[in-house]
Amino acid sequence: MAEKLFTNGKRQESIPFYQLVIESEKDSHGDRFVMSQYRLFRAVQGGGDSEKKWKAVIRFHPYRKRLPENYQLDALLQLANACFTLHNWKEVERYADELRELATVIYNEEVQRWENDGVGGILETERHLVVFMDRASC
To answer: pLDDT tens, 30-47?
Structure first.
């Protein structure tokens, strides 16, 4: 239900469902738990309450590297954007550095795949890889 609401643009309505998944999931390293943490973070970012946004950043921070790489790119960009709106420049720099490092690794893997196989991988992200490379270099 949470995913359906989230993907249909009803992010605020998805929050209680993601919270339920997080509270009931026994494996904090499991995919469902980590993805629920990410979706909850994203849903909270849509609101206007700065304190809630910051709490969401703090709550999600430890799980960011457990996401699949394609979601990590999006997550790091969103974390940097959230910290930017909160004027937390040290954290913006931290997430931008992580984003730059990850985007570079993924880019190099894509180039290697292209050179070896003649076909690049299909990385499913909200934005094209070039966007992450551009944002991370700022």
So the answer is: 999 999 999 999 999 977
